[in-house]
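Residues and backbone
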Amino acid sequence: MKKIILSIITLFFLLTAISLDVSAAKKSAKLSKEDIAQMSDSIDNLTKKIYGRALLSPQDNEELIGIKIKLDNQMLMAVNPALAPLYFKAGNIYRLRGMKNEAIECYQTVLENFSDTALAPKSRAALESMGVQVSTPKTEGEEGNSDDEGI
């Protein structure tokens, strides 16, 4: 009987610990307006360096990677329209640095998740200027073959 009670108590504590970890992770993954503003400022500063023909330091690279990871983590939780400009600007930085795959990923994220923003056509144009063929997703009931190939 003691083993059963001990097992139940242990299971209870284990489940409580897991639920606290999950709720803490959700809270920490949610970006505040201040976090978004800070990331936007950082991306703007990196863009200024690139346009000024300055080399990015290892710290700058780390900052850009950190921003991209935060953006991707937030997108796993919920789509937030405030992230569209950050993805677009990050795509521009990656494109200007010759990091084509990363730029494509950022622009594609804008197209797929923020298609109703003004940045979607700009992302499409950027992808096309990079030589990537972009197809328009078919709506329900639409039939026929498309000549465009997806990414």
Notes: Residues 29-129 form one domain.
